[in-house]
């Protein structure tokens, strides 16, 4: 049932009363689209309802703008709907006060705003996750109607959505929500690239979807012949924003993308997941190194599924994902799916909203980490940078020899791993074994790596570790020990190499503009290699420079991004 139908059927229920209160409070108000304002909180509540959240959260979704936009006192909300709903509404109201400007912000004031907005989000996360769910639903509908706003505001809101809300949804395991938010932001942040992706993939999407629709009954028949009755078999198209990011790593060559459209098989039980995988592999050979077991070893955000790519009918590659219905719900809605199964078991939502926040390790780690910055607003840029690296970037999971999973940002090294296990293990590290082989401490780790840290009593960190320590936790511990030894040096630059990789539109003068940008930073260019992408007005530049000063390199990267025609900039220490 829709929210309107629920309210009509039972006007005395919590949702029914919240519906009536919100509709009356917003009477006469219009959105920029010209529609009644009440359509917005109603749409947000519908989204929350579709995520199977509890009645208090749905009611708070209906009421989330009443305090901010209609002048209704929070005391009235508390009196009419109770402490629980009032607390959720108050939490959402506080989150809405400061607007994020991301990389577009100018001046110290904008940086303070960014830092403060993130801090409020952290506080909401650590107190009751449902406040963030409501904010995500609110943002989802605002993005769906963003065209009605001025262009500058469209860009600002889309940037905030992509950098903060989509990343946060992903960390909460809400893959579907995260992907949809990124797709909604994509055309506003990269309009030309969006149009190009649409035109370049339209026929391929249709062709692949048509092919998989032919394979679908073959898969169903194959499984049923082995007494496996799939609950559902879906055809899933890769999201445009995700495809664009992948194309940037494939030299914008769409022919190198093999998972434009994938098949998702949902079965009843965990044993059936593995049985179905075996049956499919018996019928069609799997590609080497393309089988991933995220059930035995879930992703850091709790994603679970089996993935395989096989050579299917007509010799074409088919990506197949296999999971149970519960895994599917959790993968789509993340932590929010907890309420679906909690209600089935008769659990209390008010307790679980706060308890879940306490039980999710990374949420508490995030809260403790950011508290160290509360009294230090002198460098809000550093706060934003560290926040993105430590909590909003893509993640990997490495494993201790005892089987404990350590959640780290992409690019982390054994040193980061060691300090996340224990500070003394990090301080006394002399080497590392990854998957049984001795590796240097600066080797980037990959998901699934089994890492053993070799230690030596009395050993202390080297200043050189700061060059490759990725996480703030590791960097802070290293600096602390170095300060105690009075050997800490702030200037870490050495005349070694770094490499930029730049994706840009071809145009006259581009190479000169990029070279001049680097030269103005007084950095020596060691080599400059450019390669055109076949049949496209795009080329890839690779530039070696004589520096490993991370702060200076990051500033150069920001300046290069401002050069006309530049689409993407990445760098690595050589």
Main beta sheet, described?
A: 5 strands, mixed
Q: Give the distance, in angstroms, between the N- and C-terminal Cα atoms.
A: 58 Å
| Helix content range | 40-55%
DSSP strand tally: 14
Total helices: the number is 23
Question: What would you call the structural class?
Answer: alpha+beta
Report low-confidence residues grouped into runs of 5 or more. Answer: 100-112, 346-351, 373-380, 487-495
Whole-number mean pLDDT: 81
Strand order of the largest sheet: 1-2-5-4-3
- Strand fraction equals 5-15%
Question: Can you offer a commentary on this structure?
Answer:
- This protein has 574 residues and is an alpha+beta fold.
- It is 52% helix and 15% strand.
- The protein is built from 23 helices and 14 strands.
- It has helices at 3-9, 14-25, 39-50, 55-63, 66-70, 74-95, 107-127, 129-144, 151-171, 175-189, 191-224, 240-248, 270-283, 325-333, 337-344, 349-359, 361-371, 380-392, 414-421, 423-427, 472-484, 510-519, 550-561, and strands spanning 232-237, 261-267, 292-293, 306-311, 317-324, 395-399, 405-409, 429-434, 437-439, 451-455, 498-505, 525-532, 538-545, 566-573.
- It has a five-stranded mixed β-sheet with strand order 1-2-5-4-3. The chain has a four-stranded antiparallel β-sheet with strand order 12-13-11-14, with helices on one face.
- A hairpin with a 5-residue loop joins strand 12 (525-532) and strand 13.
- The chain starts with a helix and ends with a strand.
- Mean pLDDT is 81; it is low at 100-112, 346-351, 373-380 and 487-495.
